[in-house]
Structure formats: structure tokens, C-alpha cells
Amino acid sequence: MTDRETARRVFAREFNDASLQYGEHTDRAPNFVITPTGAMCNRIFAVGVLTEVENIGSAGQVLYRARLADPTGAFTIYAGQYQQEIATFLSGLETPAYVAVAGKARIFSPEPGAHYTSIRPEDVNVIDRNVRDRWTCHTAKLTLDRIAVMEKALASGLRGEELTWHLIRHTEDGAGVSKAIDHYGVTRNTLEAYKQMVTNALSTMIEPEQPAEPKADLGDVILKTIARLDAGDGASYKILLAEMENSGVGEDSVEQVINELMSKGQCYEPKIGMLKLA
Q1: Does domain 213-277 have CATH number 3.40.50.1000?
Q2: What is the pLDDT of residues 95-114, one digit of tens each?
């Protein structure tokens, strides 16, 4: 019996940025999705707000697609005939709901240059916001740890197998860091962007010291504007931003409130640049 791979913690944005698969592509050998900061993910442990569950199967076939939003984006989850119990569980949940999912990391590449990540769930549980916040803090720390290792790797000047053997003595992701640098062309700017992602994720958990009525009002205005602009496929972020700026609200304020609304499961991105109410 082979040992089960540890379920790794990564934020949705980084997981969705991944396009590198590593392994022998056999049933017995583990296969990995390697993220841009070098996390080698055979299995994923993700926590967030379940915002959408849909049966996309055809001809009576059961195939549920769900979206699990964390403070940086959303994981896509697929549960079909081989996860019948989980599919039934997901279909019976009332959204939005705080949920924890553990499962296999997958990349689907329908054509060159196109990559879509997903999780094939093995275990799903309803949790509360405290669990979500603890997951966010732990995932933030692990992400920053990987970034620190990658910064040292870039500074070393080593590459390929030489870098792998240099790092493997210090981190379990030594091979992943080396392969990520080669595949993604990681630079210091790349790492700074992921540091900002972590900062933004943690900022969604900070409660204001005093009630902030204008921000609460802005959240309501944004939700109502999304509903008004949504013709079926979602509301354009650019159009929403233009309307807010015409009302005297800056882009930074709009983005901060939208991130808070997404972390609470009140809206989500069905695709990049579009917003939809949960």
C-alpha cells in the first residue's frame, strides 16, 4: 500500500495560476501540480465559502461543479459518479456556506496554452468562519515561507538539478521550487505580487475598531450595482468601477470592498473581470 500524499495548502489564485504537471501519469505513481511558488500538490486542502453548486452532467449523468471562494479567488471542484456521496452532499448544501475540502489536485489542458485547475474531492465538511480564518492565516504563512525559499533560490544563481539538490536539504519543496523557476520564469516581481496577494488575503479578516458606516453603505451600493449591471453572465468590473468613480469613490476603495464581499461569499467572479452575486 502506498502512503497517501499530504494535502497541501495554497491560495486559490496561486493554484489557478498553476500550469505545470509533474509525475509519471500512472495510477500508482503520484502526480503533482506545481504552483508558481514551488508547492508540489498531489492533494489540496482548501477552505472557503461555497458560492455555487451546479449539475453540469448530460444525458442523466451526474457531474457537479462547485466554486469555493477564498480571499484571493475561487477553487473549482468537480464531483461525479465516482464521488457520488460527495456530489449528493454538495447538491444538498444551501449556499453560501463555509466549507472545507480535501481532494486531488488536477490540471485540464484542452489545448496548448490553456490550463484549468480543479479539485476532485475526497472529503467535504461544513465549517465556520473561525476555521476559514485559521486556514487563511496558516496558508498565508506557508505561502510566505515558500516565497522566502524561492528568493534564496533566485539569489543563489543555481538552476536545474544543481538547485534541486541544493534546496532539498532545506525544504520538502526543493524539487518544486527548481521546476517552478524554470517553467514559470519566476522573478522578484512575481514574488512581490504573491506577497501582496497574501497581504490582501489577511486584510479581509481585520475588523474595524469602530463601525464604518460609509464602507457598509458602499458594500450595499456595490451589490445593488452588480445586480443591476448583470445581464446573465455577470457585471463588468470596468463598468462598475467607472460608475463608482463617477460617484466619487476611488478604485482602491472599490477593490477593498469587493474583496471583503467575496470573502464573505456575497459575490464572486464567474470569470476574470466579471462579478456576480452569490
Answers
A1: no
A2: 899 999 999 999 998 888 78
